[in-house]
Amino acid sequence: MERKKELRKDIAFIKTQQASLDTRKSESANVLQAIENNTVFQQAKTVLLYYSLNDEVDTHEFVEKWSSEKRVLLPVVIGDKLILRIYSNFADMESGPFGICEPTGKEFTDYDEIDFIAVPGVAFDRQGHRLGRGKGYYDKLLPQMPKAYKAGICFSFQLVENVPTDEYDVCMDTIITSNEDKLSHTHLSLPPCDGE
């Protein structure tokens, strides 16, 4: 638990002190291009994306762009869990408890229909482990979608050597991030994390 706190603190420091807004913008563009190049995403009909906070890979235009071609779902915070709603357009969004814009439509519960999930996080490692913000929202949500392809989405400095794990943590199927050269992307195809 202490190691998780330290890692969150380290990443927060890099975001605020070392990774400029221009760097995060260019990396966001590379990461989103890499998602579009992902075969599973290309073939997916229903995708679960996220509406980014200002310290995450920026997905705002990406959500709007793909909502005309795919059924795009976004998470909505209700109490201590996430539910899903279909994104229709920005006019149907409202600010949620953490200042994140959330869709206001009907709840989506056909989890087996979700083909691809873009999962944000504080940090990821090359084994597919994820460190969240500590609230456990995705840890509760993701086990309900065992068939969906889970892609961890992050900036290059969020890909670390080792993320401490607990038994309830859900592994990613791939990590999509920018390379250190900021010109291309890393797409890690990962073995399943059995027993983690």
Give structural notes.
With 196 residues, the chain is an alpha/beta fold. It is 26% helix and 27% strand. The chain has five helices and 13 strands. It has an eight-stranded mixed β-sheet. Strands 9-8-11 form a three-stranded mixed β-sheet, with helices on one face. The radius of gyration is 16 Å and the shape is globular. Residues 180-186 have low confidence and may be disordered.
Helical proportion? 25-40%
The tally of strands reads 13
SSE string, helices as H and strands as E: HHHEHEEEEEEEEHEEEE
Q: What is the mean pLDDT?
A: 86
Spans where pLDDT lies below 50 across 5 or more residues: 180-186
Q: Summarize this, please?
A:
The chain is α/β, with parallel strands linked by helices and 196 residues long. It has helices spanning 2-17, 21-37, 39-43, 60-66, 137-141; strands spanning 46-48, 71-78, 81-86, 93-95, 101-103, 107-108, 116-120, 123-125, 130-131, 149-154, 159-160, 174-178, 185-189. The protein contains five helices and 13 strands.
